Amino acid sequence: MAINILNAFQDEAPVLDFFMHGLLAGTVGALVAPGSTGKSFFALQLAIDAAGGDLLGIFDKKRDLDQLQPVLYIALEDPEPILITRLHDIGRHLSKEAWVTVAGRLKLESLLGQRIDLLNDEWIGWLIESAKSTKARLIIIDTLNRAHSGDENSNRDMSLLLSGLEAVAKHSKAAVLFLHHVAKHADSSVQGAARGASAIIDNARFAGFVKRMSEEEAEMLSEFPDRVSIAESARSPKSVGGVMGADRSLFVRYGTSKINYDLMPDDRWYKRHEGGVLLPVHLMDAKKSDGKKANGGGRRDEL
Questions:
Q1: What CATH architecture does domain 23-212+251-265 belong to?
Q2: Strand partners, 261
Q3: Beta bridge mates, 138
Q4: Contact 89, 275 (CB under 8 A)
Q5: 3-state secondary structure of 240
Q6: Sign of the four-CA dihedral 226, 32, 44, 50
Q7: Is 0.85 topped by the overall pTM?
Q8: Axis crossing angle, helix 39-51 with helix 80-91, rounded to the nearest 10
Q9: Does the N-terminal peptide bond of residue 37 adopt cis geometry, omega within 30 degrees of 0?
Q10: pLDDT tops 80 at residue 11
Q11: Which residues contact 301 (CB under 8 A, 6 or more apart)?
C-alpha cells in the first residue's frame, strides 16, 4: 500500500516500537562475536531479561508485567542438557517470582541436529507461525550459519536469507535477532567484521557485538570493588591497577556497531561469574584518578 504523503506531512509521526535500544520491532538485527566469546550466553540472558529477569541492565527495571516481552529462542548449536544447565546457573541470580514470570514468556527450543533451512518458504512459514503462537516480541536464532543451506560467502544467497528473515519480522511483528560469527582475526566491534558476505550485515538494521577484553584494555581499566559505589569512588578516587593476567578472560564488552533508526548507546562491560553468568561491572581508567567510568566513552555516531 502506497504511503499517503500529505498525511505523513501533517499528521503526528508514529511512535517507533523498539524492542530494545536500536532494535526496532518488525526488523532484523545481528549479534556477532568470535566463537566461545559468550554470545549465546549473552543472548539467553537477554531473552530471560526481556521475559522478566533483570541481570544485564539493558531493560527498564520498573517494567510492569504487561511491559514484559515474550521471546522465542531457537537454539541450533546447543543440546538440551547444556541449555538447562545455563538456565539453572542464571536462575540462581533471579528470584522465584522471576522464575515463574520468565517461564510464562520464554519459549526455548533446542533444534540441534534438525536441518532447518530458512531459504525455504516452508521453514519461513513455520517460523512465522511459531512466533505468532507464542506472541513473540523477539525471535533469536542461534546461530545463522546453522539455519540455511546457502553459501555464506554469496551475497545473493545471504540477501535471500535476510529477506526471508525480514518476512518473518514483518508478519510476526517481532524483532528478529540472529547470532553470527566474525571473520578470523577480525575485531567484532567493527561493522565489517562479520564472517561471510557483506549482505549479512548490510541488510540487517542493527548489529550488536560481544567482545573479549583485550590486553590493552586490561592494562588501562580497573574494576571497582563491589562494596565501593561509583559515587564513593568519585569522592575518594583510587587506582587499583589494571585488570591483569587470567582475570582478563572474565570480562566481555557488549556494544553496537550499526544502528539504523536510533543513536548509538554506550558500550557495557560484563564480568563472568560461576557457571558463565554475565553480570554488569563498572570499570575505571586505571591510569587516572578522576573516578570516571569506562563503559564506552559516550559514543554517539551518526545515523
A1: 3-Layer(aba) Sandwich (3.40)
A2: none
A3: 71, 175
A4: yes
A5: coil
A6: positive
A7: yes
A8: 60
A9: no
A10: yes
A11: 259, 263, 264
| Mean pLDDT on 145-168 | 98
> Could you give the angle at which helices 96-103 and 39-51 cross, rounded to 10 degrees?
90
Which one, of 255, 279, 300, 295, lies nearest residue 30 by Cα?
A: 255
Whether 133 has a pLDDT exceeding 80, the answer reads yes
Element of type H or E holding 81: helix 80-91
- For residue 239, the model assigns a pLDDT of 41
Grid cell, residue 222, equals 580497573
Joined together, the cell numbers standing for residue 249 give 578472560
Q: Which three three-digit cell numbers place residue 83? A: 541449555
How do residues 234-274 score in pLDDT, each as one tens digit? 444 444 456 766 689 999 999 999 999 999 999 999 999 99
pLDDT, averaged across the chain:
88
Q: Where are the alpha helices (DSSP H) in 155-276?
A: 155-172, 199-202, 215-220, 230-235
User: Per DSSP, what are the bridge partners of residue 278?
Assistant: 272
